[in-house]
Every structure is written in structure tokens, then in C-alpha cells.
Amino acid sequence: MDIQKSKQDGEAALLQVVRVPGSEWSSEERQAKPAPTVCTFNGDAQGGVQYHWFVNGSAPSDPEAYIAAVGKELRGSGFTVQLRETDYGKYGTLYEAVARGESLPTVATSANAKGSTIMLDSVCVAGDAEKL
Fold first, then answer.
1. Cα 75–115–68 angle (5° rounding)?
2. Residues 28-68: tens digit of each pLDDT
3. What span, in angstroms and rounded, lies between the C-alpha atoms of 28 and 30?
4. Residue 93 pairs with which residues in a beta bridge?
5. 10: three-class secondary structure by DSSP
6. Using one digit for the tens of pLDDT, what is the confidence trace for 1-28?
7. 16 exposed, middle or buried (CB, 10 Å; 0-12, 13-18, 19+)?
8. Three-class SS string for 55-107?
9. pLDDT tens per residue, range 59-87
10. What count of other Cβ atoms lies within 10 Å of the Cβ of residue 1?
11. Do 76 and 70 contact (CB within 8 A), yes or no?
């Protein structure tokens, strides 16, 4: 896989999550420009490059149901999804879906009563982040 394909796959996964009903994402967030970052490729700590997205959305009315729907959507695309929840006491419960797969981006979506976020890393491929 080359970096362009890696980026396209990341963009597709991001759009797949923002299309799940339950959270609102501004057009600016939907079109967020990813940052190229260094990653370990074939054992070389500086030998790879991937794109990283971090976007914020609105608070879903039911964060747990929203994250379950995100997990279901990503499973349908071949991702392995882990759902978890963490109780932060007076700050409430954070619900998360972390999705991974062979030759797929890594997608971490979280939601609580205050908002939702998507952190996404494209597949790491050979390359130099400083040249992008």
C-alpha cells in the first residue's frame, strides 16, 4: 500500500463514522486535514509515515447507543471492534469503540454527555512524514 491509498482509506473510514446517526459533525470537522506522522515500519522507528485525524462532534443524546452503532457500522466493514466504557465519576461515563483490522486504519471513537471525538490513524507505510 502507498501513502495515497493509506490516506484515502483513512478518509473513507472517517466519513463512515461521521455518517452514523447520533452525533453532529461540522463541515469543517468532516473535511479535517490530517497530519502526517512518523510511525514504525518494518522495525525502523522512523521508517514509516501515516496520517492522523482528530475531530470533535456534538454530544449524542445517548452516547452508549451511539458508540454501539459506530461499532456495528465498522464491524460491517471488516474491522474488529472493542467496545468499552469508563466511569469518570462526576464527569460521567465515556463510551469508546476502538476498531482495527489487517491493512485497515485504526479508528477510536468516543462519546459522553459533553461531546464525541474520532481519532484515526491510517495504515503505516514506508515513507518520510517530513516530505508530505
1. 25
2. 888 888 999 999 999 988 899 999 999 999 999 999 999 99
3. 5
4. 87
5. helix
6. 899 999 999 999 999 999 999 999 988 8
7. middle
8. EEECCCCCHHHHHHHHHHHHHCCCCEEEEEEEECHHHCEEEEEEEECCCCCEE
9. 999 999 999 999 999 999 999 999 999 99
10. 13
11. no
